[in-house]
Write a structure and sequence with these properties.
Helix content is about 80%, strand content about 0%. By secondary structure, it is an all-alpha fold. About 20% of the residues are buried. The protein is built from six helices and no strands.
Length: about 120
């Protein structure tokens, strides 16, 4: 991979910070009450919800989403094994396209030195 996934993640959050200054209503709506209601412990714990979101992100092919959900799952204590099992579920549903997108997750974990 020519571009660092970690560098991409940094650029992604920098853009959000700039966008929030320019579009506070949109940023507040996007990261506000709906996400707060969904991303909390409920019948399903928060770590599992983040892993579910990672599988959806892989299916959608959203690089920003894959990085963000992987990061948040790690913060909640997810192991590399749990993340790869989540990738496996996404791949079983999405085939080769999902497989290629899951490589972003592997590169991210490698750059964070979570895997070799």
């Amino acid at each position: 991979m020519t571009d660092s996934v970690l560098a991409y993640e940094e650029k992604m959050w920098e853009l959000f910070d700039v966008s929030k200054q320019g579009m506070p209503d949109l940023a507040d709506a996007y990261y506000g009450p709906v996400k707060d209601a969904v991303y909390r412990d409920g019948v399903i714990d928060l770590k599992t919800k983040r892993l579910m979101s990672l599988a959806v992100a892989i299916q959608a092919g959203c690089k920003d989403c894959m990085i963000s959900q992987t990061s948040k799952a790690l913060e909640l204590g997810a192991s590399a094994e749990e993340i790869f099992e989540t990738c496996s579920v996404a791949i079983s549903m999405g085939g080769t396209l999902a497989w290629s997108k899951a490589l972003v997750v592997a590169d991210y974990l490698r750059e964070r030195e979570i895997i070799e």
